[in-house]
Every structure is written in C-alpha cells, then in structure tokens.
Amino acid sequence: MTNFFGNKRLIAILIGLIVLIAVMGATLKERPVPTWPERFVKDSVSFVQGLLYKPTAMVSGFFDDITHIYNVYEENKALKAQIDEHAKLEAEVNALRIDNEKYRQMLNTKDSKLRGNETYAADVIARTPDRWNNMLTISKGKNDGIEPNMAVVSSQGALIGRVQSVSAFSSQVELLMDIEQANHISALIQGTQNIYGVIESYDLEKHELIMRKIPKVKDVVVKPGQYVTTSGMGGVMPSGLIIGRVSSVGDGDYGLTQTARITPLANFYQIEQVFVVKRNFVVQPPPQEQKQKANKAKK
Predict the structure, then answer these.
(1) What is the three-class DSSP state of 240?
(2) CA–CA separation, 264 vs 245, rounded Å?
(3) What does residue 174 show for φ and ψ, rounded to 5 degrees?
(4) What angle (nearest 5°) sits at the alpha carbon of residue 255, between those of residues 252 and 259?
(5) How far apart are CA 151 and CA 147, in angstroms?
(6) What angle do CA 142, 296, 264 make, to 5 degrees?
(7) What gap in Å lies between CA 146 and CA 95, rounded to an integer?
(8) Could you tell me the end-to-end alpha-carbon distance of the chain, in angstroms, rounded to an integer?
(9) Are 275 and 119 in contact, with CB atoms under 8 Å apart?
C-alpha cells in the first residue's frame, strides 16, 4: 500500500514536469500576441521600472554633472596656467629682442661712429628725480678704467655729457643740460670749412644748446641743419663726437660774434646704455679751473 502511494507521487511529479515542458515549449513559439499572463508580467515590470528609473537617472545625472564641472574646472585651471606661462615667455622674448637690438645698435655705433677711440660700455643704474636734468650714475668706475672728465655718449653715439666723479664700481655723469662756466665744451660746426665756438649753456624750455664765440666774418657762414661735433680744442674731450644740428643763428655779444642754437641728437630723457670715451692725450686745465672743479665736487 505504501509503495503504491510512493509511486503515485512520482507519477504526479513526472506528469507535472511534462506539462511544464509543454507549456514552455508552447510559450517559446513566436506568437503575434502574447498571452495575458505575459502581458501582466511585462506591464508590471515596466511600471516598476518607470517608477525607479527617473529618480535613479536624476541621481546619476547629478553626480555626472559634478564630475563634469570638476573636469572643466581642472581643464580651465591648466589652460590658464599655460596662458600665463605663454605670456611670461612672450614678455621675456620681447625683452631679449629689445636688449639684442640695443646691443646690436651699440656695436654698430662703436664700429662706425667711435672707431679709433677707446670706449667703455656701461649701463645707467641710477637717476634721481631731483637731479634728473643734471646727473646720472653708470655701472663702470675707477676699477674699470673710468676717469673724471671723460666724454660720455649715448648708445646712438651722440654726446650727452662727461664723467664728473668716480668711485670704485660706478661713476657720476654730468649731462650737457647742466653746463656751467667751468665745463664749457669746445665745438665746431661742420661745413666747407670748420667753424669753431664754445657751447656754454642749455635752454631747458626749448631743449637747445647755446653755442657762442662763433667768429662773425664775411667768409664764416653758419646755416641751420649743419652738424656740430666736439673739436678737441678743450684738451679733455676727443674730437669728432657728434653733438647735434644747428637750428638757428643770431648775433652774439655786442654784435661781434655769432650765437647758434643747437638741437641735440641725444635724447636726455631716455638713456639706458652709454659709452665712456677715453682721450689718449689730456691737457690739464689751469690751476684756477682745477680749483673751481674741486669746489664743485665737494658741494
């Protein structure tokens, strides 16, 4: 009796498996319209998925946006650093280009306008506002061979002044704008014949040098546009250093001489590099003039 019931259960299980396999086989077949249990299950799953998808998508999108914003921030930061570095490099290249052009110009000046003269190139390292029109400091001194009264010219080769005093590593340069009685400059006007005179002062309003003691004779004719250079007659400065060009001519003291106004070729307000020019033979000034210069240096 027990074996019968046991066999009965086994038979029922087998029948159930057969029915399940048959149902599965029938379900797997292609059908134009799914059965209602399938539709019910699919609709239920779709509804649940719809409820969960939007919140999940919002949370996922929020974190994606944060990641994107952070990535954009890092990229902008890197690009800004590259732009800053590029601007720095461009500024350095421009500075080097300007310096190269200045040194090229100085080399050309030395080879063309200062040939035959012993020169010392120097940088302007100081220029105080209260003495802007009078004095500047250069980077060469006694240890470099600089001596008082040496001529100083701009990087373009135009005379700007003379060395007033020297220390071990720097020198004070007195500009032409500060000409006084004790440091007049012997000059000549170039032409068919050399016309000599003395540069005695500077007109700060018109920015012109005043050249006096020009002979007033029939065969001495001074015309605007003529070049003026140092004559070397003063015994200190070498000859041939360009000063400027004649802008106008008039009568001098008591009508016995002529006075010329000279437009300097040097730009006294923008001087960065200079040449100090040495004269091979220097004539010492008279004792009275030496005393005046010594008193001026003490002041």
Answers:
(1) coil
(2) 7
(3) -90, 125
(4) 20
(5) 10
(6) 80
(7) 29
(8) 144
(9) yes
| Cβ 262 vs Cβ 244: under 8 Å | yes
- Residue type (1 letter), 184: H
Domain 118-280 has CATH 2.40.10.350: yes
Tell me how far apart the alpha carbons of residues 259 and 251 are, in angstroms, rounded to a whole number: 6
Mean of the per-residue pLDDT values of the chain: 80
Give the integer Cα–Cα distance in Å for 204 and 192: 31
Under 8 Å between Cβ of 183 and 226: no
**Cβ contact 241:227 at 8 Å:** no
d(CA 289, CA 273): 30
* 244 within 8 A of 263, measured Cβ to Cβ: yes
* Cβ-based burial of 237 (10 A; exposed 0-12, middle 13-18, buried ≥19): buried
Who's near 46: CB < 8 A, 6+ residues apart? none
Collapse the DSSP code of 165 into the 3-class scheme (helix H, G, I; strand E, B; otherwise coil) and give the result.
strand
Counting Cβ atoms within 10 Å, is residue 227 exposed (0-12), middle (13-18) or buried (19+)? middle
For 77, phi then psi, to 5°, come to -60, -45
Residue 245 has phi, psi (to 5 degrees) of -130, 145
pTM of the model: 0.62
Nearest to 237 by CA among 174, 283, 272: 283
**pLDDT by residue (tens digit) across 88-115?**
788 878 877 877 777 777 667 666 666 6
Check residues 41 and 12 and name the one with the higher pLDDT. Answer: 12
* Tokens coding 267: 């730009």
